[in-house]
Amino acid sequence: MSILPSGGPRLLLRQLREVMAEGAGGQARLDKIVRMIAANMVAEVCSIYLVTEADVLELFATEGLNPGAVHKTRLKMGEGLVGMIAETASPLNLSDAASHPKFAYRPETGEDPYRSLLGVPVLRAGRTLGVLVVQNRTHRHYTEDEVEALEIIATVLAEVIASGEFSVEDSLAFRRRMGPVHLHASGLADGIAVGEAVLHEPRIEIRQIIAEDVEAETGRLEAAISDLRASVDRMLHEIEFNVGSESRDVLEAYRMFAHDRGWLRRLREAVVTGLTAEAAVERVQNETRARMLRSRDPYWRERLHDLEDLANRLLRHLTGDVETAAQAALPENAIIIARSMGGAELLDYDRKRVKGVVVEDGTPVSHVAIIARALDIPMVGRAERALERVEPGDLVALDGETGELHFRPSPEIVKVFDEKLALRAQRRAQFHALRDEPAVTLDGTEIALNINAGLLVDLPNLSETGADGIGLFRTELQFMVAPTMPRLAAQAELYKRVLDEAGPRPVTFRTLDLGGDKILPYAPQRLESNPALGWRALRIGLDRPALMRYQLRALLRAAGGRELRVMFPMVAEVAEFVAARELLHKEMARAQARGQPLPVMLKVGVMIEVPSIVWQLDQLLPICDFVSVGSNDLMQFFFAVDRSNPRLTDRYDLLSPPLLKMLHQLVLKCETLGVPIGLCGEMAGRPLEAMALVGIGFRAISMPPASVGPVKLMVRSLHAGELQTVMEGLYDLPDHSVRAQLAAFAAERNIPI
């Protein structure tokens, strides 16, 4: 038996609209809403719980429970049935709530007599604002119509909550705006920024939620869908000849989703229930986000951004406001705030005005973080609930190295950040003055300072930093930012442009280093218990030789008439290198047979990342042209420590004696056999660690572009022979780290680190 009124959800919405039209205050409105829902759904209890700033669900209004429990009963996110609904963003329908293992009894509510429970999340902009619950004494399972009715009411309720019309002390909107907010985020791209908040997707206010005329709303929705499809097609046509453009790749994904039948069906069904077209889009967007965030499939989590962007575009067509934040006039010091963001979208902004980026999601290997680092834009990620805590125009201060983030900072905080900016500007000027000077120590030792790169936007850094070359070109980034596998021509064109830009400076191309945390959006994903030690890099290439040969073919095509340096990653044994080199030789023979121009010189190297290969150097070095230490992976394998695990970040130090000793032995072995050795990774980009590398004997290191200036300044202030003598006395120490000893050495000799 259904507890819905005879008119169904549409009648319920009409009655709810009448309650809202009475113009009562925030708390009074919530009280009326729970009474109306309880009466119309013949429920003995109706309660509204809202999420507070501390991620606590607080009982804000109830009909049927003890009124004294309002604003006193609280549950943590995930605690009890209400907390579970909020955390999972999913409805819960139980005939005997008390028997559920997550049930949490709160005696002050007086809910003992009630058995059945139906709860739905209150979602807005993909976030859980609260939970709406109805209860009855009898053991019963609520029907699908009842669940849908409560979800529709929750959609309306979300707009009421977001309007901030509660009493001042209870208003979430008031709490959000009342003063400074300090968040501990994750640094994704180094740098300091102070500026004005600009929302990547400006909030579109939905002024009317309940439809006056369902047929008219259906017509508006269909017209907006048609306009959306046409606009995406026009944008694709405009860049039709821009082969390989990241923007085109993103728009191709938009077009695919714009024709998705399941998405369109859910939109139409939501309008039929009595919502306006805008409210229907908002509801489907919220449900989709909640569902996809719970998915363990990385592909669908990556595609969430595409669907959200498409929904926002559709809302702009419905409201008539089709201008995006990137197209609008930006302030001189814009800080872009986004839930998530694609790399191509960041490229749409005026780079001279964007001073920083804040995202609620994001990882160091996300596309937008890669682009931000290439553009030298400070960025922080994993900024929890940032969009709830900031308004357009708010002052924002962020540190892309430490992850420190401030909204509406106090004058004292602003002064601190201004001083940091001034200091960085002075140092940048100092580094720029050294751009054309060689990296030579005081005793005449030359150090080659190269940069790491992976996209075309990285290439201007070669001339801007005065780097000696590209020590590591990450070829997988081209594959990661595209929705489909890049074709042979696109790969060859990218590699050719890299070589053209580098001119006489050397470029080392690393073959595809996929797997682990580097996910292709178009490839099927296999769950692995330990991806870092799993099927990745050269292991994929040797198991899928056609994929590797395809890339090697593109590299050979691009390097015709020039030198080509190719490096294989994650080599664990000599046999793997031999097999990979054989694939390269087969492609060389194929190109020669077809009369294609060949590289004038081919150098093939190994990336030393797996400790096992260190014990095979006598067999490896005679058959390779160069080696490069991949310090990031080698360090975690050497210490058996997952470097992405925050609980283990202090378990090892890059300046640990056993690690430095191993690197020193590597250098000595390569010197003995006459094989050039370099190092690329996090270690090379820090002046103190780079100083240690020079003392060990490295004469070529590769780093992020922003590190070239600080490392060059250090090198030019250093006496390499003296440091080498000091290092000899550190290798066999039992200490956890020799960081203090090296820092003291630098301080005594005024070496800037």
Explained architecture:
The chain is 44% helix and 16% strand. The protein has 753 residues and is α/β, with parallel strands linked by helices. The radius of gyration is 30 Å and the shape is elongated. The chain is built from 28 helices and 22 strands. It has an 8-stranded mixed beta sheet with strand order 7-14-13-9-10-11-12-8. Helix 1 runs antiparallel to helix 2, helix 6 (214-238) packs across helix 10 and helix 25 (687-696) packs across helix 26. The protein folds into 4 domains: 8-176, 2-Layer Sandwich (Beta-Lactamase), CATH 3.30.450.40; 179-201 and 326-425, Phosphohistidine domain (Glucose Oxidase, domain 1, 3-Layer(bba) Sandwich); 214-319, PtsI, HPr-binding domain (Enzyme I, Chain A, domain 2, Orthogonal Bundle), CATH 1.10.274; 434-748, TIM Barrel, CATH 3.20.20.
Brief synopsis:
By secondary structure, the protein is α/β, with parallel strands linked by helices. The protein contains 28 helices and 22 strands.
